[in-house]
Amino acid sequence: MSRNEKMMSLIQANESDLAKKIKFNPFLPEFQVDPYPTYRRLQEEDPVHLSQVGVWVITRYTDVVKALRDPSLSSKPSEISYASSRQQSSSPVASLSNELLFFQEPPDHTRLRKLVSKAFNIRVVEQMQTRIQEIVNELIDQVQDSGVMDIIADLSRPLPVRVIAQILGTPSEDYNQLKEWSHWFSYIFDPMKSSKTNQQLNQAILEFKDYFSHLIHKRRQHPHNDLISALIQARDEGDKLTEDELLATCMLLFASGEETTVNLIGNGILALLHHPEQLEQLKQNPSLIQSAMEEVLRYDSPLQICGRTTTSHIEIGGKVIRKGLPVFLIVGAANRDPNQFQAPDQLDITRSSNNHLAFGDGIHYCLGSALARVQGQIAINTLVQRLPNLKPQIDKLERRENIFLRGLTSFPVSFSN
Ligand code: HEM
User: According to the model, what pLDDT value does residue 53 have?
Assistant: First the structure.
């Protein structure tokens, strides 16, 4: 039997398994509340799983890492995607995707990432630390006397938008509008979005693009000490960002840093409130915040899925996946894999070996991980130190409907003042 014939017979064997008992349905409300039992069953019974909606679902840590580093898995959305979210080649989403760092492959990705990293680097994050602490203090000052707050509306949603807006250099009166566009923009990574969401996404991109186009024009004429001006000036051996790349990069930095960080702070505080002894330990010893941050990133990852498309027939975990198919690499599941982490379902803020995949791996590893970590650490530590006896109102928690991003839309708490 030739190699090709062998591949084809493996593919047929795989696909006849389609009716496997385990169901991966990320839209079920019970899955959205707690996906971890389903992930564990998949890891144990069918770690490379062809779901009933035609997406391959990979849940074991070793398979997910290997796939994140495999050049035959592309971050470009699959052609055989979902009818509801299929893009016309002329749609704003389709034309923006051509310029977006995240959807690029080497050598274009390498070139673009190098240029963006010249402007958006660790120095930018270091310079922002004091300001991040000030913003967190201002946000907590506003609720401190009332004894109640909504962690999402009062802290974790306003913080990243102010931080990234200040870094990029967008005026403060535009925060609310930017927050709105950025919310819709985050659906660009979701291949299962409804056609209504898709319309809103396309509209948001048009407006977002128009907004940054004006701002870039202004900064070209009068550079400021901000990231937009730095991106305009970024050079690598004579190479620079084109106008479309500049626009796409501003939007990507804004949106990818916003919704994810909202979830990091919300999920992190929720995990600590569910584990009062861990919360107390952090309160007594604030220097544990660095390992606590890594642990909450692992325990309830803000971004659960890295979406990929196979560019050739490939083998993962003993199964062969056809070329051109969508694959979900579930980092949220890999981060709870018992073969990688001891007692993976326990939150342990002192965990020392914590090689989690919350920021991905391989060439698309998160460009904003340092900024996200600093914001998360300052927000969580300040909240824990300043607001005693924090108590969640569990019956009022609301989850967001986005299968890639895991987080809350409403998280009311009470505290002593
Ligand atoms: C807790 C917060 C964050 C989480 C959990 C997170 C997670 C991730 C993950 C998992 C990826 C890889 C996706 C993939 O391979 O499919 C990624 C990529 C990326 N992230 Fe983040 N991110 C966070 C915050 C940020 C921030 C604050 C920024 C910037 C302001 C940012 C900018 C980016 C960019 C530009 C990429 C694409 C990099 C590339 O394609 O080379 N992220 N992020």
Answer: 81
Residue 377's nearest CA partner among 282, 304, 299 is 282
Look at the block and give the residue holding tokens 């991003």.
405
What is the 3-state secondary structure of 58-72? ECCHHHHHHHHCCCC
Instruction: Report mean pLDDT in 10-residue bins for the chain, 417 residues.
Output: 59 55 83 95 96 92 98 80 53 84 94 95 96 98 96 96 94 91 85 85 94 96 96 90 94 90 97 97 97 98 96 95 95 98 98 96 98 98 95 87 91 92
In the chain, the largest separation of any two C-alpha atoms, in whole Å, equals 75
**To test ligand 1's pocket by mutation, which of 256, 327, 356, 365 has the most ligand atoms within 8 angstroms of CB?**
256
Q: What CA–CA distance (Å, rounded) separates 101 from 47?
A: 30
Neighbours of 242 (CB within 10 A): 11
3-state secondary structure of 25: coil
**Cα 417 from Cα 348, distance rounded (Å):** 28
At residue 193, the pLDDT reads: 80
Which tokens go with 161?
Answer: 């938008």
pTM, whole model, 2 decimals? 0.93
In this predicted structure, what is the pLDDT of residue 73?
Answer: 97
Distance of CA 329 to the CA centre of its chain: 13
Distance CA 248, CA 208 (A): 10
Provide the H-helix boundaries in 274-365: 276-284, 289-299, 331-334
Q: Which residues line ligand 1 (CB under 6 A)?
A: 75, 101-102, 113, 164, 252-253, 256-257, 260-261, 264, 302-303, 306, 358-360, 364, 366-368, 371-372
Distance in Å, CA 360 to ligand 1 centroid: 8
